[in-house]
Design goal:
Elements (H helix, E strand, L loop, with lengths): L20 H6 L3 H24 L5 H4 L3 H30 L5 H16 L12 H11 L34
Helix pairs in contact: 2-4
Length: 173
């Protein structure tokens, strides 16, 4: 059974239609992490600004430490939202939706080295080929619904929507 991911027209070359979670993290740029830090710190800063401009608590209630709980919660939500935003920006470079020249070069170098060492291009998996295909169908382009369900590819499989011959891999008949 083959994986049938739709081939989309993209403004930049596609590197991988279903990149592994850790690969997306490794390929993230410093600007992605800056966006994450901005969201993680911006959300509680906005909450503090709102509280300063229109207080919601009486002086007695404010001394109880309720605002500290609000700030911890807002920081957590900002950090999680920032991480998902940074992850999605990095993932879009793999899909060819954002400028990705440095990622193309790194991908070619990294995966060509794996092939030269005699390793599988995308790593080994303990799953059966059928389950690898199921995992690929579930996670390919899953970032499109990231705001609804954050779904990551955590399975090594051969279904990535690109021709692996560019890495020097020979197809097995």
């Amino acid at each position: 059974m083959s994986h049938t991911a739709q081939q989309l027209s993209t403004p930049y070359p596609v590197i991988d239609t279903d990149p592994h979670f850790f690969r997306v993290i490794r390929y993230a740029r410093w600007s992605d992490w800056a966006y994450m830090a901005g969201l993680a710190s911006g959300f509680p800063a906005l909450m503090a600004l709102w509280e300063r401009s229109e207080p919601t608590m009486s002086a007695k209630y404010a001394r109880s430490g309720a605002m500290a709980s609000v700030m911890r919660t807002s920081w957590s939500l900002g950090a999680i939202g920032g991480f998902l935003y940074a992850y999605n920006r990095s993932q879009q470079r793999f899909w060819g939706w954002r400028e990705n020249q440095p990622e193309q070069e790194r991908d070619l170098k990294e995966l060509s080295a794996r092939v030269a060492d005699g390793k599988s291009v995308y790593g080994e998996s303990e799953l059966s080929p059928y389950m690898q295909t199921v995992a690929a169908r579930n996670s390919t382009y899953s970032g499109l619904l990231f705001g609804l369900i954050p779904w990551f590819n955590l399975v090594n499989h051969p279904h990535h929507g690109v021709d692996t011959a560019k890495y020097g891999e020979q197809r097995k008949e």
